[in-house]
Write a structure and sequence with these properties.
This protein is 29% helix and 18% strand. By secondary structure, it is α+β, with helices and mostly antiparallel strands. A hairpin with a 7-residue loop joins strand 4 and strand 5. The termini are far apart.
Length: 178
């Protein structure tokens, strides 16, 4: 149902993917796409950490971080240190989605940057959690014109993450209370 126009005759528009204001908001938005919540929440766990603190290479480590996030969430990544290796990883999306992987352009034919979409700002620019942003894992807004692609991990990766999450939840239930 369309919203009525404002006094100026223009109907108000809301962003397609507003930024999640908290971890629980981010999880709720990401839950709309199976597996996305695990990727986003895993990435958020490491905000502020450096490559050294995460046990990763300290040179050009955004793809290393993305692969680590996917692995820790119970899935598999590209096993490549190149950000652009994620261009062929999973299903391409027509725009940003919370929990999707954003691959961005950087100077040079093979350069790039990669991270997980947390939301968008009011102008459609993706808000991304990524490694190697100012030598740490950070959340930042990137110009939408720099995005080469948005991808959702392949279904088998999402299925592996769901199995890992279920196993962790069952183990937690069965653990004796202390």
């Amino acid at each position: 149902m369309a919203r009525p126009p404002c006094g100026n005759g223009i109907a108000p528009q809301e962003p397609l993917e507003p930024i999640a204001r908290s971890r629980s908001d981010a999880a709720e938005a990401a839950a709309q796409v199976p597996g996305a919540a695990a990727v986003l929440l895993e990435a958020l766990r490491y905000r502020g950490k450096s490559a050294r603190q995460l046990g990763l290479s300290t040179k050009l480590w955004c793809a290393d971080f993305m692969n680590m996030v996917l692995r820790k969430a119970g899935g598999k990544g590209t096993h490549s240190r190149a950000a652009r290796s994620f261009l062929d990883f999973g299903k391409r999306l027509d725009g940003p989605r919370v929990g999707a992987i954003a691959i961005m352009w950087r100077k040079g034919p093979n350069n790039g940057h990669v991270g997980v979409v947390r939301g968008t700002d009011g102008r459609g620019n993706p808000i991304v959690v990524s490694g190697n942003h100012g030598n740490a894992v950070r959340q930042s807004t990137y110009p939408k014109g720099k995005v080469l692609a948005y991808v959702m991990p392949p279904q088998y990766v999402l299925d592996d993450m769901a199995k890992a999450a279920k196993a962790a939840a069952l183990a937690k239930e069965e653990a004796p209370l202390r």
